[in-house]
Design goal:
This protein has eleven helices and 14 strands. With 336 residues, the protein is an alpha/beta fold. Helix 5 runs antiparallel to helix 11. The mean pLDDT is 96.
Length: 336
């Protein structure tokens, strides 16, 4: 492997602590070098060798840094991404990349001008559950897909403490937060929709932002995808339901990587990415003899690390990154 990519994060909240630092530290393609911490220096407790900057200008002026992770509140992504690109850093931006498609197109133009790359962190393409769904679709056992339902359910009736999620500012609310994952997953499987209809609203007491969102996407070949996300589901429904002309597949959203990372499990642990027992997906279909068959499908290991592997290969060897930036433009237009 070539020289590791020297990397820095712009925050060490949950996103930095859970979704980025563990991979930048353990993936041989990266060196976790620095972090921006404006108030308290907490990252050093977990990573003693890390350098903590209190000013973004100081971090961006460090010539050793090649990749900057933009993992700050959504409304700051565009500004910080511009600053990082102007400092000639590659950038990995948390979803949603920006508040509008126009902002993201501006970043892409700037990146081309300074010869740097823009990556968007849609890690849930590598969740065990959605990878299982893709595997079943590609197997052909369902026949032609008629409808797919994707849900992201939580029960959080109280107003959260994070201002950038609960205040009516650009890209706040559940639709930008969780809906963006589901839209990305649908596009990653079926491509560009030809029509869509969506709605969002707020139902929690004193909520200032949307806590419910729904969208119906119609793709070529008459494929329907129904996306729902809500903060008021006390009994979460199956996260993935697919019906085709020959069969059906039903599965929970049950990828364990986030929970394992929160609990402190290393991505190098042999059990990392494995689903808990009895979480198999149920596949029901009719075979070539017209016989009804039921199978329980065990998912492969989830693998968020694959995203970082692709970032490394793209920067060092100019390989293609799975999350195409034209898809990101489409997603941002659908999120508005």
């Amino acid at each position: 492997m070539e020289k590791p990519i020297v990397s820095a994060m712009l925050a060490y909240g949950m996103s930095g602590k859970v979704f980025h630092a563990p991979f930048l530290e353990t993936n041989k393609g990266f060196e976790l070098y620095a972090v921006l911490e404006r108030n308290q220096n907490k990252a050093v407790n977990d990573y003693p060798k890390i350098i903590s900057f209190s000013k973004i200008t100081d971090l961006l002026s460090d010539e050793k840094i090649e990749l900057v992770v933009i993992n700050t509140p959504n409304e700051t992504h565009f500004d910080y991404a511009q600053q990082a690109l102007k400092a000639k850093k590659h950038i990995l931006i948390e979803k949603p990349a920006t508040t509008t498609a126009e902002e993201f197109e501006t970043l892409l133009a700037l990146a081309e001008k300074v010869n740097r790359k823009v990556f968007v962190y849609h890690n849930r393409r590598w969740s065990s559950d959605i990878m299982a769904a893709k595997q079943i679709i590609n197997s052909g056992k369902l026949g032609n897909i008629v409808e797919m339902h994707l849900r992201f359910d939580r029960y959080r009736p109280e107003i959260g403490v994070k201002y950038f999620k609960e205040t009516p500012i650009p890209s706040s609310g559940i639709w930008y937060d969780l809906g963006s994952h589901l839209i990305d997953q649908a596009i990653s499987i079926f491509g560009t929709p030809i029509r869509h209809f969506g709605t969002k609203n707020s139902y929690r007491e004193n909520s200032q932002v949307d806590d419910f969102g729904f969208m119906h996407l119609l793709f070529p070949n008459k494929v329907n995808v129904f996306i729902t996300t809500s903060l008021l589901i006390s009994d979460p429904q199956p996260g993935i339901i697919i019906h085709g002309t020959k069969g059906s597949f039903i599965k929970e959203f049950c990828d364990e990587q986030e929970n394992q990372l929160i609990e402190g499990m290393s991505p190098l642990h042999p059990e990392f990415g494995l689903e808990k027992p009895n979480k198999e997906g149920k596949l029901t279909y009719y075979n070539d003899k017209g016989e009804k068959v039921t199978e329980y499908i065990t998912s492969k290991k989830g693998n968020f690390n694959a995203l970082f592997d692709e970032v490394y290969q793209s920067i060092r060897n100019n390989k293609e990154f799975s999350v195409d930036n034209q898809d990101i433009i489409l997603q941002l237009k659908l999120l508005v």
